[in-house]
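Journal club side-thread
Mid-discussion, someone asked how the predicted structure for our own chain would compare to the paper's figures. Pasting it here so we can look after the session.
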Amino acid sequence: MSLEITGKLLVKYPAQQVNERFKKREFVVELAEEINGNVYTNYAKLQLVQNKCEIIDRFNEGDTVKVSFNIKGNKWEKDGKVNFITNLDAWRVEAATAAPAGMAQSQPSYGNNNGNSGYGNNAGNTNNYNPSPESADDLPF
């Protein structure tokens, strides 16, 4: 399944040669969206692997980018305990148009377009309320 997000490139890390057969490069995209007058900011750390590590080079921190990625997960067992890890594997990064005036950052865009994009932390509110479309009470009763 392929997903997309659009946001501000916040941090680019150097490439890491994990072992002789695997290289990765991580970067962070800042996502902000407005829900009911509150701006919610999320930070997504993604990774580029192997020959894709260089595609982030043409962008500067602060640029608005659109990232296409897949969700990858692994399971392993150590000392009798099962562990899981999830990675957001980017495979395309391209320039995105800037957010319209008056909008905080850019709106995230998720590949399935079903409206499930309201998760994360509330940077502008101290009560740590974290609304999502699933938890928003829009029922008439």
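Post-session note: The first strand starts at residue 2 and ends at 12.
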